[in-house]
Amino acid sequence: MTRAMVLSDPPLLDHYGALSCHSTQCDEPQSRLIMEECQLPLIDLSGLSSRDELVRQACAAAIYRASSEWGFFQVVNHGINPQLVGKMRSEQVKLFQTPFEKKAACGLLNNSYRWGSPRATCPKQFSWSEAFHVPLTKVSDEACYGEFTSLREVMTEFAAAMSKLARLLAGILTENLGHGKEVFDNICDQSTCFLRLNHYPACPISAEISGLVPHTDSDFLTILCQDQVGGLQLMKDSKWVTVKPNQDALIVNIGDLFQAWSNDVYKSVEHKVVTNAKMERYSMAYFLCPSYDSSIGSFTEPSIYRKFTFREYRDQVQEDVRKTGYKVGLPRFLLKGT
């Protein structure tokens, strides 16, 4: 074991090693197959502002189709300035280069620093990554940044741009279900929408470790801005496929709440991040969530899921993870007989 591995920052190796010493049935090895590389549906959002009604309709239809067939798609000409993305990436790298002890103890970004998988009971449940998971209400809070003063201005602008894009896409998807775009203005709350900064350090010890374990997102939709290292995989036709990075595109994926609300018209698809032995990876994700007391009910009858609030859903997910190490998600809310 090399000195660099022992001194990993954050101390992922120590945590993973402790889990490996207590092997259970969930630790059965899974050989990493060479995954098929896929090109996600690529949608040019400039079509939404076209003067040609047919072009606008075709763009919206492409969003509906990708959301129901893939649960994932890419967007270009999305309105977020590439220079802003570059500045945000630069600030993100500086943030994560801060020594672990400082990141973990100094209360940065609303004390939102997380690393590894605290509730993991075996290596299969462990994520080789670190992140800041920041509610939008805290993004502009000067007290959250400490010495990282240049991060605040960039992050505030970036969060606002991602929020605007998320609401645009959610509105389009909602209109397809027969609702008005204003629905999200009424139920989405800055206190429950998040911006998450992710860092996946190089992991030279095992190709079997996940950068982020398989999961679905517990929101309406997620917008992801990733670098060119790659590593995102999603479940398509009952097999894992690797998403080819596109430096000009943002990735959008449907969350559990939109699947339930659409009565399974839109699909919340399981996805994960694999590790890289030599290269670190960075990404930034925006999560569009409703207020905790918002009721999530299917837009049409007969409904597949019983009605539930976002708070109820989050509490159930957290309870399942606490008890089993895994998220169960929407199957918990299926009506009997569906």
From TrEMBL:
UniProt superkingdom:
Eukaryota
- Entry keyword Acyltransferase: no
Q: Which Pfam families match?
A: 2OG-FeII_Oxy, DIOX_N
Per its record, the protein catalyses:
gibberellin A1 + 2-oxoglutarate + O2 = gibberellin A8 + succinate + CO2
One GO-annotated biological process of the protein: gibberellin metabolic process
Name the Enzyme Commission number(s) assigned to this protein. 1.14.11.13
Q: Does the keyword Protein transport apply?
A: no
Record domain Fe2OG dioxygenase: where: 189-290
Keywords, comma-separated and alphabetical:
Dioxygenase, Iron, Metal-binding, Oxidoreductase
Q: Cite the GO molecular-function annotations of the record.
A: gibberellin 2-beta-dioxygenase activity; metal ion binding
Write out the similarity annotation. Answer: Belongs to the iron/ascorbate-dependent oxidoreductase family. GA2OX subfamily.
Q: Which PANTHER family match?
A: 2-OXOGLUTARATE (2OG) AND FE(II)-DEPENDENT OXYGENASE SUPERFAMILY PROTEIN-RELATED
Its recorded name reads gibberellin 2beta-dioxygenase
Q: Which gene encodes it?
A: LOC111318168
